[in-house]
Write a structure and sequence with these properties.
The protein contains ten helices and no strands. The chain is mainly α. It has one domain. Helix 3 packs across helix 10 (264-301) and helix 4 (104-110) packs across helix 5 (115-125). The longest helix is centred in the C-terminal third of the chain and has 38 residues, at 264-301. It is globular. The termini are far apart.
Length: 302
Amino acid sequence: MAKGPNTPDRPEGTHVELEVEPTVAGRIARWTAQARILRKRVESARDHHTSIDLGFTVVERDSSIGGALLAGALAYRLFVLLLPSALLFVSGLGVYSDLVDESAGTVAQEAGLRGLVASEVAATASSSARWVVFIVMLPAVVYAIVKLYRAIAIVHAIVWHGSGRGVRITRKGVLLFIGVLLFNFAAVEIVSWIRRHDELGGLSALLVYLVLLGGAWLVVSMELPHRDVSWRTLVPGALLFGVGAQLINVFNVYITTRLVEGRADTYGALGIAAALLFSLVLVGRLIVVSAELNASLDDRRA
């Protein structure tokens, strides 16, 4: 075979290796193998690190009881509560604007609402039927809160006892839960007002809000189904709930709210509903995991 002028001399019998870009399937196979190796290393460290073993215990408990499905059920109940609560809030702004003799738009801006949200709320609050909506929504909100509290109680019973049959809710527990919801709403507004006027004070207010919210959830957890344990056993889950609720609040403020105001014309109502439902699923996941953490820690003590 004749060699061209630019053909390099190679010994006969040698093979030429061509560099081929890895395919998508090859990359997935490589990532899967790396993930399998990492999982084996983590599982081998389970016997030597208490925190890793606790994490595996919580994941196994979550898988055995269907934690994702339970979180979805809680998200549904939260959404059912959100609908009449939003109508109650909007109609309440309209009623308040009548009492103070101000426009609904001014009242919405004084409440901290901005942009598209403020305009939509102001337009709805100006409806002539706001008094009727306000009166009708009061019992609807209370009914939705009771149903949500019962769903949370059933989830805690499943986590702690493996079954939600025969769960009974108390009037004290429902009243405490309503108080926590009102406290959370008021605390968020207070922290937002402080952040708008003083950033350093806002940071301190966020820390105080985290502690107070965790303490409020601890009080609610003491009324929910659990084993015969002291209140100290429920503290880790309450702290996790406080930290997680703070992170979800930050997500809503900096992502969900901006999506509602800046992408309403692009994604429409479906995009806004998807972002809202995702946020509610996170809240449901947080409730389930906080109960699983307490139950898993109690298993380790036992």
